[in-house]
Write a structure and sequence with these properties.
This protein is an alpha/beta fold. It has helices at 20-28, 36-39, 58-70, 88-98, 101-104, 116-124, 144-156, 172-186; strands at residues 4-9, 31-35, 49-53, 74-79, 107-111, 125-126, 132-136, 160-164, 191-196, 204-209, 222-226, 232-234, 241-243. Helix 3 packs across helix 4 (88-98) and helix 7 packs parallel to helix 8. The longest helix is centred in the last third of the chain and has 15 residues, at 172-186.
Length: 252
């Protein structure tokens, strides 16, 4: 049996949002490797071995997957959302770069998924309809000073901003500081979306002004999107539409 490795995204949570390409790869797999909650989203079946592991062991997880593939197994490494956005694709390639030469000869594919910022944006309207950036607010793998610098520069450039991993129990103070930086840079009236558990039954969307935003509105299941200065709300019956126009007038 010839082994291969697929790095796949399971989307934001709803099984209907897993791509057919990823579903097909999981159907052929002998092994699924990933963080416990994501592996739990894969239905068990005869001939499939599920390898769940804890958070913060991404390189160990990647090495296990690569070793299994070298042994001839058909391996799928799963991430939520898209595997190339703050997820396992980069971790696998970090391991590959410094690992045994046999790993480089493997058939390796990255299969995209619907990442959380796109799912959240679609639910709210189109807040990412013009230029935007994505920033991971976790300081586990980079210093907070760099995060704050990027927040200020993104605000100066007037990007809409999508924030991953905004607030965990272990570091609640980081998001509080991020809100302070954003209010200093963008003002109190900028629109901000808190989209929790998007596509799941417990989904919750909240759109407020930056001046009314509080740290408790976000957790690790929340995608936060801050609009640009041109983003707006369209009032209508039911939930308003949050969007950013596609155009910017030329400056005089």
């Amino acid at each position: 049996m010839t082994g291969w490795l697929v790095i796949a995204g399971l989307g934001p949570g709803d099984p209907e949002l897993v791509t057919p390409e990823v579903t097909a790869a999981l159907g052929e797999a002998t092994d699924v490797v990933g963080y416990f909650p994501y592996v739990a989203r894969v239905a068990p079946r005869e001939g499939l071995v599920l390898h769940g592991s804890d958070n913060r062991v991404e390189l160990d997880r990647a090495a296990l997957a690569l070793d299994l593939a070298v042994q001839g197994r058909r391996v799928v490494v799963v991430s939520s959302g898209d595997p190339g956005v703050f997820a396992m694709a980069a971790a696998v390639f970090e391991a590959l770069e410094t690992g045994p030469s046999a790993w480089r000869a493997l058939d390796i594919q990255v299969l995209p998924g619907i990442t959380a910022m796109l799912a959240a944006s679609a639910r709210a309207g189109a807040p990412l309809g013009h230029d935007f950036c994505a920033i991971n607010l976790s300081d586990n793998l980079k210093p907070w000073a760099l995060i704050e610098k990027r927040l200020r520069l993104a605000a100066e450039a007037d990007f809409a901003m999508a924030f991953y991993n905004p607030r965990s129990k272990a570091r609640p103070e980081g998001f509080a500081r991020a809100l302070e930086v954003l209010r200093e840079s963008c003002g109190e009236d900028r629109l901000i979306l808190f989209a929790r558990a998007v596509s799941m039954p417990e989904e919750e969307l909240r759109i407020v002004r930056l001046g009314d935003a509080t740290p408790a509105m976000a957790d690790m299941r929340t995608m936060v999107i801050v609009g640009s200065s041109r983003s707006r709300l369209v009032a209508r019956e039911g939930r308003p539409i949050f969007y950013t126009p596609r155009f910017v007038e030329a400056q005089a």
